[in-house]
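Late entry, iron/sulfur cluster complex.
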Amino acid sequence: MINVENKAECCGCTACASICPTEAISMQPDVLGFLYPVVTADKCVNCGLCEKVCAFNDDYSKESNLEQPLAFAVRHKQISEVEHSRSGAVFVAISDYILECGGVVYGAAFTDDFSVVHKRATTKEQRDEFRGSKYVQSNLDGLLLQVKADLKNGIKVLFSGTPCQTAALNSFVGKRLRENLLLVDIVCHGVPAPNVWLDYLSFLESEKGRRIIGVDFRDKQQFGWSAHRETYRYEGCDGKFTVGSSFYNTLYFRESCAECKYTNLQRPSDITIGDFWGWEKTDRNINADNKGVSLVLCNSEKGYELFSDVKENLIFVPASLGDILQPNLVRPTTLDDAARRIFVNDYSSKGFYYAMSRQGLIGWRLSLKLFVGRTKEFIKRIIFR
Ligand SMILES: Cc1cc2nc3c(=O)[nH]c(=O)nc-3n(C[C@H](O)[C@H](O)[C@H](O)COP(=O)(O)OP(=O)(O)OC[C@H]3O[C@@H](n4cnc5c(N)ncnc54)[C@H](O)[C@@H]3O)c2cc1C
Ligand code: SF4
Ligand code: SF4
Ligand code: SF4
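Prediction complete; structure with ligand written out below:
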């Protein structure tokens, strides 16, 4: 039976809990809200399925992969779609096609309290909730079983998520049901903790004395595609409020992200999508307005066929693999173990506010950091004017 001794070895994909025939495994949160499998030993019949299904290792399935992925710089032809997506809106183009073929789409969305969970969409309106990056680990609870049920009913399924989630689903559904399943993963830097996120929102609400009704982790409409600035909307207030990029911090990433198995070009999906950093080397015009451009990797024949089916809605330029490599296509994100230990210890013993302000992520240290940052920007602007 599965036994997670080292947290870095478990990405929380839920595949083991979903496959257990006796429901002996439940996913339990740690102090940061990350889920880990816990086995009720007297329910276990030692079938070994949980260990077999786990794909968070170097042996994840690559058998449908092309020798090398085919890479493209891509942007949706409708600029309004680009404006409402994180990068070039390739996800919208692909998911539109699946929905138009009568299929269903799974992706990460907010709940009413802005927790991040995976949901199922059968309409474009429901799918629109998946647009935009949510920088928190999404909860897959029960989702893998739902996807399998759809596939067994002969429904075409597009699942989009982190590479560890697509690798898990691939392993969980097995070869026979894989035919109707299209997997889209993102280039992934890592996922922050669900509990820290919810505490962060409560902190912002209490500072303002108002409820948050809108979140944008990277507001490109206001700051452009390449900036990393969060904005929030509050009940009863006009406009959006910016708080820099203080939430997205590796201090409370999942430990497994430092040991990620998928930071390479052998992707656990049919298509990979990401932000195309360094797009200028491929085409100097495709993102001249800085509204965003996607990197697309077609990893399997099925992925390339799907891309070909949606190409008419896209502007696309083939890219050379040498020009697309960004850090998380080469190696996992490095986590500062010592600083992380201090953060987790503070968070569990003294709470959110103490842990965050000690790291300068909220409170007077943040104000000081922002002040210094803005002064530097101001001086730079005067010097380079
Ligand atoms: C946590 C995270 C880290 C990322 N790190 C990088 C990076 O290092 N480099 C890079 O190039 N790109 C990264 N991306 C991907 C990038 O931000 C865009 O999602 C991608 O460029 C697709 O853009 P789009 O305009 O086509 O789609 P969008 O419409 O913006 O599509 C969003 C897609 O991302 C999925 N998604 C959103 N949030 C989550 C989540 N929390 N968990 C799982 N799936 C999610 C949705 O299901 C949907 O399929 C990251 C995304 C996330 C969520
Ligand atoms: S990585 Fe997934 S399958 Fe493996 S132990 Fe963790 S939750 Fe279970
Ligand atoms: S060995 Fe089988 S019964 Fe036991 S926990 Fe794993 S999947 Fe469940
Ligand atoms: S970095 Fe790797 S382990 Fe972490 S969420 Fe992304 S795919 Fe999963």
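The mean pLDDT is 92. Will revisit in the morning.
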